[in-house]
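Q: what does this look like with zinc ion bound?
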Amino acid sequence: MVCRSHLHYKSMQYIDVHTHANLSAFAEDYAEVVERAQKAGVAMINVGTQQDTSKRAVELLDEFSEGVYATVGLHPIHTSASFHDEDELGDEGETFTSRGEVFDHSYYKELATHPKVVAIGECGLDYYRNPTDEEKKRQLEAFEAQIALANELDKPLMLHLRSGKGGNAYQDALAILKDQAKVRGDSHFFAGSPEDAKEFWDMGYSTSFTGVITFADDYAEVVREAPKNLIHTETDAPYVAPVPHRGKRNEPAFVVEVVKKMAEIRSLEQDELAEQLRSNAEEMFGIRV
Ligand SMILES: [Zn+2]
């Protein structure tokens, strides 16, 4: 029997808590991408954005026995007709993005029963492109439905919140979560204010940071102030590659660059921070990487 060397790692040193090896950008070489991550000691959570990408994230669980987890859910921009991103859904995605999706509880519940589905999402509110009242209503309905599923299955939420012309998505989400959520969650790609962040931390929610911190210092204060047990690193690959890979397709192995920069911002040794981040992810997502 062939035993690949990466299977002998006792555990992974790093974790990319929000990535998308399940998207079209990786259709041709996802196996190499996962393998490169494993060789770099990086475990990953592949995040679903609608029905097809959620299903694909779950399929990957059966293909890789270690270091790969999934979330299933409906991204707020996919609740209405949306911009078509070839890297996300490929050519065929065009028909999908022209209509949007209504959250189907039983479809997602069935996917979410897989023991390695560790959260519901990415779900939340996206006000970046100034959604209409009708679009906001659809986002809200899908968000509330996913909070209900997370409550039912006792799994945390993977939150996508993006403020913009349509308002402060963080403040709106906080009000909804305080009212409805019985679980915790992670505010992915955190880009809110230090005050917004503090409200999440006070509720036991975590914030995660991408490669953006390697080339912009807008979030240095939040990264520095986050409680040590409520912070994570992620890539959001294939998007926003960190320095020194900027401009290229991002991939989970590059999360090491985010850890390196976070260690610098928080004045910690990289290994010490990596150990803390691993334990944070294990705690939030109920896994052992
Ligand atoms: Zn994402």
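The first helix runs from residue 30 to 39. The longest strand covers residues 117-126.
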